[in-house]
Every structure is written in C-alpha cells, then in structure tokens.
Design brief:
Elements: E1 2-4, E2 9-11, H1 18-28, E3 38-42, H2 46-52, E4 58-63, E5 68-69, E6 72-74, H3 80-92, E7 97-104, H4 111-127, E8 132-139, H5 144-153, E9 165-166, E10 170-174, H6 178-184, E11 189-193, H7 206-219, E12 226-233, H8 238-245, H9 253-260, E13 265-272, E14 290-291, E15 297-298, H10 300-304, E16 308-314, H11 319-329, E17 336-342, H12 346-354, E18 361-365, H13 367-373, E19 381-385, E20 391-396, H14 403-414
Parallel strand pairs: 1-6, 4-7, 7-8, 11-12, 12-13, 16-17, 17-18
Antiparallel strand pairs: 1-2, 3-4, 5-6, 9-10, 10-11, 14-15, 14-18, 16-19, 19-20
C-alpha cells in the first residue's frame, strides 16, 4: 500500500512505521486548518451521553473519503496539521479521552488502507496528548456536506444545555449544540419513545400522547421548526411503527400530532427489534425452568406459590439492570413475589446474588427460554403476573423515576 503526502511518497512495510509517517506528513502538510475534513466537539450534555453511550469527553469524526485514491492513501487531504492543532487545543482545555470516528463514503475501499488510516489517526490523537483513545470506522452513503454542513453553521445559544424532560413513556430533549445537530440532524427537538412499539400499539393516544405533549411543552422551545422521534419496535410490530410514523398511506398520525404540537416538519428514527413479549399478554406465563443459587430447578409459578409477582428477565447484569433491581428492592413486596432471572451460568448468577443486598430471588435462566418461550429481546424486560399465573403487563428498560409507575401497575394489575 502506498501513502502519499503532497511532498513525499512512502511505502508502508509494517505497522511500526505509522507514527513516523504521521509525523512526516505533518511536517510536509501546508499550514492550513482544513476544518472541513473533520469535526470535533466536547461530550457535555445529557443528550450527548444518551446518543453516544461513551465514556470519552471528546467526540471527533474525520472524513476520509477524499484521502483514498485507488488503493493509495493521501494523508495530506485530511488536513492533519489543523487536526493536530485542534486536538492539542482541546487537550489543553482538560480533555483526556477521545472517541474518534473514521468516516468513509464507500463500502468498497481497500481494507488495508482503511486500517492504516485508523492507526495513523489514533497515533495523532496520542501525539496530541490524549491518554485514552478509542477509534471506530464507520461507512455511510450520506455526503459529508449534507451531514457536516448544518452542524457547522449552527450557532449555539448561550444556554446550550440539553437536559431532557421525561417520564415513563417518553423523554424530550432540545437540540442546542453542534454535536447534537451533527448526530441527529438539523432538528429543534428530539423525542425518545421509551417503550417499544408492539402489536398492541394501534394509535398515538392515551398515556403516550399525553406524555409527549407534556414533555415537549416542558422544554419551552423558542422555535419549533423540526421534530424527530426515536422509536423501537418488537418483531411483529414493524408495520405498526411504519404506519404510525411513516408515510405509507399519506400523512402519518405522528405527522399530524407533530403539527398539533407546533412543529412544521417531523421525521423519525426507527430501530426494528426482535422479540415479542406482548404475545404473552393474557396468557399463562410459560413454565420456563429457573435455577436457584443452590442448583434447584423450579418454575416461576412454583416460586410465587399462588401469589402475584414480577419477573424481570435479563441477558446480563449491566448497570441498568442493577438500577432496576435496586428500585424493585425498595418496593414493599407485600402480597406479591419478585424474581430476577438472568441468562448467565448459574455460578455467575450465584456470585451476583451474593454480592448484592437484594431481598428477592435471583435465579438463572437458559437463553433459549428467554428467546423462544418468553420472546424477550430488550434488556431488561419485566413481566407482571397475576395470582392465576396470567401475564397482565410488561415493560422494558428502566430509568430512575420509574418506581412510581411500577408501583401504580402493581396496584392496578396485581391487586396485592
């Protein structure tokens, strides 16, 4: 593979040469910023954290499309001098960690060239002084001008906070930073629908509609030009989601709703999921086998012993699951049973149970049981089961503040 600068040509024979190559290119590159080839912004707001799920304090993306020419890498096209200068300025501002995305607009690049660019850019981040560097390659058909343009022209207001307003059903965010405008597009408001659209979701009415309306109004947006929804769906509800938010048959219900909220335009992001826990509603909970910490096998019906109960199903014991468990542990538990079923080996589940102060059962469950019998995909998924063993409700995920809704559902659905 050949690597060119505007003044030199090098043959890369080993990965050890990358640092030298990057340094030499910096020496020969014209002293210009070339900011149009990269985008760097701090990760500061609640919305940033939710969109990126990154521990880094700085986000960067480098558009590498123009630097690849028929198997050759033209590092000078990246404007490395300006990139290094910008990175060093952010490092001087106190940023120590960065997540850099190496962006390509073709899916047919030479993979060695792509890997070289990734390694060279990682070296530049470290040369700028960053202690923690994470890089990711990304491929897209969207042009850099279309993606980068609106964000680069956006002038952040003095108050650029992006704290959300939300409840169990939805959470609304203002878009006040260039980073959010880059990640999502040129929108004024982002509304995340927390529960997946399933086959029982026939329209935008009831608690979901009321939630969205109240949360958007709670933002007190100075302008309402464009709104974007973020939603997921269960396996058999993709058509439901497209009908409610897309334009399969003219104007969608979501578009009508957006105009009622005062927005001129509406768009949505849809992440189709798997699983279909709603298929269990109104039916007996399948007799899946749960293994207790002492190795004894039992069903949830045997565990609840004629009372109603909550069964929360996890694929692992990540932070969100543990927060949910802490919240469930604070419930009074009078008249109903709580159990967490984790699809991990029993030894690991026993270890988790021994290190927590949860007062409910923590058991292991086969992943095949969660996938095939319970039809669970989202982690965590929690079922409400009445005293007759019938599934009367479910919800996925957890955020602090959901406790009130959970308690209301226990009272309404389980009658403990």
């Amino acid at each position: 593979m050949l690597v060119r600068s505007r003044s030199q040509r090098f043959t890369v024979r080993s990965i050890m040469q990358l640092g030298l190559i990057a340094a030499l290119v910096l020496s020969f590159s014209p002293k210009q910023s070339f900011a149009e080839t990269y985008f760097i912004e701090p990760i500061t707001t609640e919305l940033h954290q939710r969109l990126l799920s990154s521990k880094a304090s700085l986000y960067a993306v480098v558009n590498c499309s123009d630097s690849l020419e028929g198997g050759q890498v033209d590092l000078a096209e990246l404007g490395l001098l300006g990139l290094l200068k910008s990175l060093r300025e952010f490092r001087e501002d106190g940023h120590t960690s960065i997540h850099m995305f190496i962006r390509f607009e073709s899916f047919e690049n030479n993979k060695d060239s792509e890997n070289f660019l990734e390694q060279a850019l990682e070296n530049i981040c470290r040369n700028a002084g960053f202690e923690e560097v994470k890089t990711s390659k990304t491929w897209t058909s969207v042009s850099w001008d279309d993606r980068f343009g609106p964000a680069s022209k956006f002038e952040e207001p003095e108050d650029n906070s992006e704290d959300g307003v939300g409840d169990f059903y939805s959470r609304a965010f203002p878009l006040r930073t260039r980073l959010s405008r880059y990640l999502l597009g040129d929108y004024d408001c982002f509304v995340r629908i927390r529960q997946p659209i399933d086959t029982t979701t026939k329209d935008l009415s009831g608690p979901l509609r009321d939630s969205i309306k109240a949360n958007v109004e709670g933002l007190n947006l100075p302008q309402k030009n464009r709104l974007i929804f973020d939603l997921r769906s269960t396996d058999f509800a993709r058509d439901n989601a497209d009908h409610l938010f897309g334009q399969i048959a003219g104007v969608s219900p979501a578009e009508v709703f957006a105009k009622e909220l005062g927005f001129e335009q509406m768009n949505f992001r849809h992440s189709p999921g798997r699983g279909a826990p709603e298929k269990l509603l109104g039916k007996p909970l399948p007799p899946v086998q749960l293994v207790s910490n002492d190795g004894a096998a039992q069903t949830f019906d045997e565990l609840r012993n004629g009372t109603s109960g909550l069964l929360t199903v996890w694929s692992n014991a990540d932070q969100e699951c543990r927060k949910l468990a802490n919240a469930l542990n604070k419930l009074d538990g009078v008249g109903y049973v709580i159990a967490a079923a984790i699809s991990l080996p029993n030894e690991r589940v026993t270890e988790i149970a021994s290190k927590t102060k949860w007062e409910f059962s923590v058991v292991s469950i086969l992943k095949a049981s969660t996938d095939e019998q319970l039809q669970v995909w989202h982690n965590p998924t929690t079922f409400f089961i009445n005293s007759e063993g019938i599934v009367v409700g479910y919800f996925v995920n957890y955020e602090p503040g959901d406790e009130e809704w959970i308690q209301e559902q226990i009272t309404e659905l389980l009658n403990p």
